[in-house]
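Dear H.,

Thanks for agreeing to be a second pair of eyes. The structure we're designing against is below in token form, covering all 179 positions.
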């Protein structure tokens, strides 16, 4: 059972440790000092940023993080994605990670993605679809998206999170049911 709550500042030490895990660091390529975590996650936590950082809990224990945002709130990013695929009004995007390496490879990423899709439809009535770019090299991530019901709708070059990666990204989409 996956439940959700907003990330808060008390979670930052745990998030810092997650960002240091090799399976996360490979794709997130994030600074891991407490100052960097506070700088990059603090604004959303305090409501100063329009995105939401959501902590996924599996059986009540922290499992992972999902960052969810409306693309309209980030026009440059919207334009970047729109150069590859059609981006309908009301599109939402996510980024995600499983923090504990012991939970990787058990289907929990797929379950987490399914859960956040359902939560998005319930919490954001104006959301028309979810559009998720993922590095083509990150097979585990795009396979989790496919297993969660998203379909590949495009391929194009985007700035990779990790500079060692090729810019090729797959874009996955799921539309709100009954639209």
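And this is the sequence the design step returned. I haven't edited it by hand at all.
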């Amino acid at each position: 059972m996956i439940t959700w709550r907003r990330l808060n500042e008390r979670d930052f030490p745990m998030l810092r440790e997650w960002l240091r895990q090799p399976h996360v660091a490979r794709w997130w390529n994030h600074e891991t000092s407490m100052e960097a975590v506070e700088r990059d996650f603090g604004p959303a936590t305090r409501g100063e940023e329009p995105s939401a950082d959501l902590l996924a809990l599996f059986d009540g224990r922290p499992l992972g993080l999902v960052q969810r945002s409306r693309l309209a709130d980030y026009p440059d990013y919207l334009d970047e994605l729109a150069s590859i695929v059609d981006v309908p009004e009301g599109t939402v995007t996510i980024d995600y990670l499983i923090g504990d390496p012991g939970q990787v490879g058990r289907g929990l990423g797929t379950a987490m993605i399914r859960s956040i899709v359902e939560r998005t439809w319930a919490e954001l009535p104006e959301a028309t679809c979810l559009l998720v770019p993922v590095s083509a090299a990150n097979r585990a991530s795009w396979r989790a998206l496919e297993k969660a019901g998203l379909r590949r709708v495009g391929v194009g070059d985007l700035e990779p999170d990790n500079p060692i990666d090729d810019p090729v990204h797959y874009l996955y989409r799921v539309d709100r049911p009954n639209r």
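Two observations from my side: Strands lie at 2-6, 52-58, 61-70, 91-98, 129-135, 151-157, 168-175. The first strand starts at residue 2 and ends at 6.

Warmly,
E.
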